[in-house]
């Protein structure tokens, strides 16, 4: 009975363990991910050890019972159902032999009844032993059935997890293919942007060549502050206003170079200041002319008319010549300033549009490069996760194969 209780307690503990394992597997989705091949082997070895211990206990109990049967005097010559059959045949023969002498041999009948009672006692003992063995075998069969059902349940769970891992693996492969396709599209768009940038650069070079052939030159500062290949720091608006660019003829460029170095706006401002200075000079000369006229009138009164007229004519001619020269210089400067102002306005708009398009192209290039880097890092992460999943799948397959071999 103690052995039966032990077996029952062991089976119940095994059932509770299997139920706990199954509930843990059902509740935690990532439970099987943590089970490696080594843990499966450890569990299998523990189960083997438990079965081996149970087998040893059963063998010890059987040996103990055999020893008790050998020591029991009531079961002295009985060795199973064959001996009982032999004894019954002997009793029948003795009965048949002693039936005609029943009246004369009372002592022999009493001995036969005692033998019959002892045989019945032996049969009852053997029946109890057989019932005990049957109960033990039923208990062991129930434990084995429970173990089998738990193992079948675990195998079904492992199959379900394996199917889920296969689906997850296929989804990861699909996502990897999608990311690879997106990377290819990004590379293609990056190549298109590079080609467009090269085309714009070629157009700018061709524009410079055509301007040089037709006698025009670019004026103004066109530098940009380049830090690296990816990013370009554009100057602020104040600096961009100072770095105005324009296309002028060689003569105008020579005039602007005579005004000194610097941006185009500054050179035009210098020309305007020079024009204002010349206009002031012309005004002062006009005032001087008026003063000279008044002086001439005074001289006419003092000197003779001929000398006064000659001197006045000479002075008038001289001042007229100076005045005409000043007016011509002022007119040329005014026309140059007006032409330069119109050219400055036109080239300002062209430069702003070109700089805006260039800024947009470089911003798009930076964006594409950043997306390319992000997609490459994402691809690397997906590849590493795919490798981890494949390794886990291989471990699960090995664990499954080991469990199937054990079953």
UniProtKB/TrEMBL annotation:
Pfam families: LRRFIP. The keyword Nucleus does not apply. Keywords: Coiled coil. Residues 48-73 have a biased composition (Basic and acidic residues). InterPro entries: LRRFIP1/2. Residues 268-302, 337-406 form a coiled coil. Residues 98-117 have a biased composition (Low complexity). GO terms for biological process: regulation of DNA-templated transcription. Residues 1-32, 48-117 are annotated as: Disordered. Belongs to the LRRFIP family. This is Leucine-rich repeat flightless-interacting protein 2. It comes from Lepeophtheirus salmonis. The gene is LRRF2.
């Amino acid at each position: 009975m103690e052995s039966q209780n032990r077996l029952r307690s062991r089976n119940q503990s095994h059932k509770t363990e299997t139920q706990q394992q199954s509930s843990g597997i059902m509740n935690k989705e990532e439970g099987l991910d943590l089970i490696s091949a080594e843990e499966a082997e450890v569990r299998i070895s523990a189960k083997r050890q438990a079965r081996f211990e149970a087998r040893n206990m059963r063998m010890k109990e059987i040996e103990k019972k055999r020893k008790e049967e050998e020591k029991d005097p009531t079961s002295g010559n009985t060795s199973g159902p064959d001996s009982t059959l032999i004894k019954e045949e002997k009793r029948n023969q003795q009965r048949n032999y002693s039936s005609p002498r029943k009246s004369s041999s009372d002592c022999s009948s009493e001995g036969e009844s005692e033998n019959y009672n002892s045989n019945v006692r032996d049969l009852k003992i053997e029946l109890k032993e057989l019932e005990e063995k049957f109960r033990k075998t039923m208990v062991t069969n129930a434990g084995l059935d429970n173990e089998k059902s738990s193992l079948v349940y675990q195998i079904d769970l492992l199959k379900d997890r394996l199917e889920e891992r296969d689906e997850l693996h296929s989804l990861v492969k699909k996502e990897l293919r999608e990311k690879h396709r997106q990377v290819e599209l990004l590379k293609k768009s990056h190549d298109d942007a590079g080609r467009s940038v090269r085309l714009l650069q070629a157009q700018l070079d061709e524009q410079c060549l055509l301007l040089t052939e037709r006698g025009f030159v670019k004026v103004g500062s066109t530098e940009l502050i380049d830090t690296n290949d990816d990013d370009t720091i554009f100057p602020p608006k104040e600096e961009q206003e100072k770095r105005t660019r324009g296309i002028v003829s060689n003569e105008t460029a020579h005039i602007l170079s005579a005004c000194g170095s610097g941006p185009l706006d500054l050179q035009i401002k210098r020309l305007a200041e020079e024009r204002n200075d010349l206009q002031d000079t012309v005004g002062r000369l006009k005032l001087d002319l008026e003063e000279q006229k008044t002086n001439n009138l005074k001289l006419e009164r003092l000197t003779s008319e001929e000398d006064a007229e000659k001197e006045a004519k000479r002075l008038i001619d001289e001042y007229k010549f100076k005045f005409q020269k000043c007016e011509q210089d002022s007119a040329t400067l005014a026309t140059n300033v007006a032409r330069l102002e119109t050219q400055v306005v036109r080239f300002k708009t062209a430069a702003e549009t070109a700089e805006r398009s260039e800024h947009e192209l470089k911003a798009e290039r930076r964006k594409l490069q950043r997306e390319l880097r992000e997609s490459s890092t994402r691809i690397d992460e997906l590849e590493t996760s795919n490798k981890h999943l494949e390794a886990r799948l291989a471990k699960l397959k090995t664990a499954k194969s080991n469990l199937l071999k054990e079953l």
